[in-house]
Specification:
Blueprint (H helix, E strand, L loop, with lengths): L4 H14 L7 E2 L3 E3 L2 E9 L8 E7 L4 E6 L6 E15 L2 E17 L5 E9 L6 E4 L2 E5 L3 E5 L18 E5 L16 H9 L2 E3 L3 E3 L2 E9 L8 E9 L5 E7 L3 E12 L2 E6 L4 E3 L4 E3 L5 E8 L8 E8 L3 E10 L10
Parallel strand pairs: 2-12, 13-24, 15-24
Antiparallel strand pairs: 1-3, 3-8, 4-7, 4-10, 5-8, 6-7, 9-12, 10-11, 14-15, 15-16, 16-21, 16-22, 17-20, 17-23, 18-19, 18-22, 23-24
Keywords: Signal
Pfam families: DUF1775, PCuAC
Protein name: YncI copper-binding domain-containing protein
Length: about 325
């Protein structure tokens, strides 16, 4: 992280703090791989209209199996069990039933405080990218209640909902026969549009007052579906700009993420509002901070390859930049 990033990140943390009172119940980590162990950490940021939270109920979706909740001091724990919709393998043993809902009861979480509720389990049975929801109900005494169970429609952002359910994007463990080469699948119009944009092959490229340079992508292990990368953006203009989206023919979609250290725990969150590029400042996307996440990658990135990305800025418009792929354990940027 450069010193020039600090004012921007400090402003982001200030905005996060001022908006905490209106924050939604959410998951600490919102991406996982199928057929892997996973800890669901439900974040409860506030009470019910100022009243303290006395009970938290979490419904478990199909595909999150063998759940074990973490007890919390001062709370009574209730596990509601039932039948799964299908049978899952648990170390060679077929299992068709288990926990379907977890309830922490009898607590007293003040509206002024924040807390998390943890459930360990396994993600299983997904052969394509899928989003699963964990509806949460907060009870605040006898007459206070908030239900976080709304699921966005296709193309709709969860931020547009008043009470979105905490959700998790599950990535398949392997590509399977359904995947194809995204570059080969581009339309002629899309390729023509890309050809008309300025392109940098790991070298500096400009878009308006912005200069993009120093990019790289980390090589991926065989079968991996998620990759990381980044670059440096310098704004030589008098006005701030914003990176609002990134696309690549090498991935199903590309997300903007930020990793931060909170209470000695590294946390990663998706930046739906993009990344601000202040006037006269340089912003670096690299491991341990702001970075790109390539999701649903059809062919794992190999050292020596190049990954084209189309960067869309709020004011500078679009520019194509080509990121060279470094080694699995090295490369220009060492990404998570």
């Amino acid at each position: 992280m450069t010193q020039r990033q600090l004012p921007f990140l400090a402003g982001a943390f200030l905005l996060a703090a001022t908006g905490m009172a209106h924050a939604h119940a959410s998951l600490e980590t919102d991406t996982a791989s199928s057929e892997s162990s996973f800890k669901v950490v439900v974040q409860i940021p506030h009470g019910c209209d100022g009243k303290p939270t006395t009970e938290v109920q979490v419904k478990l979706p199909e595909g999150f199996v063998f759940a074990k909740p973490q007890p919390k001091a001062g709370w009574e724990l209730e596990v509601i069990k039932g039948d799964y919709q299908k049978t899952y393998d648990n170390h060679g043993k077929p299992v068709s039933a288990g926990p379907l809902e977890i309830r922490w009861k009898g607590g007293d979480l003040s509206d002024e405080y924040y807390d998390t509720f943890l459930i360990s389990g396994r993600i299983s049975g997904f052969d394509r990218q899928t989003t699963i929801a964990f509806p949460v109900t907060q009870l605040c005494g006898a007459d206070g209640k908030v239900v976080w169970d709304q699921i966005p429609a296709d193309g709709q952002s969860a931020h547009a909902l008043e009470h979105p359910a905490p959700s998790l994007t599950v990535m398949p463990t392997n590509a399977g026969s359904a995947h194809h080469d995204h570059m080969a699948g581009m339309t002629g119009a899309a390729m023509a549009e890309m050809a008309a944009m300025p392109v940098g092959d790991g070298q500096a490229v400009t878009a308006g007052d912005l200069e993009i340079s120093g990019g790289s992508v980390k090589a991926m292990l065989p079968g991996a579906k998620v990759g990381g990368g980044g670059f440096v953006v310098r704004n030589d203009g008098a006005e701030a700009d914003r990176l609002i989206s990134v696309e690549s023919p090498a991935a199903g979609h590309v997300e903007l993420h930020e990793m931060t250290m909170e209470n000695d725990v590294m946390k990663m969150r998706k930046l739906d509002d993009g990344i601000a590029i202040p006037a006269g400042e340089t912003v670096e996307l690299t491991s341990g901070g702001l970075h790109l996440m390539f999701m649903d990658v059809a062919k794992p990135f190999a050292e020596g390859d190049a990954v084209p990305v189309t960067l869309t800025f709020e004011k500078a418009g679009k520019v194509v930049y080509v990121l060279p792929v470094g080694g699995v354990a090295g490369g220009g940027h060492k990404h998570h």
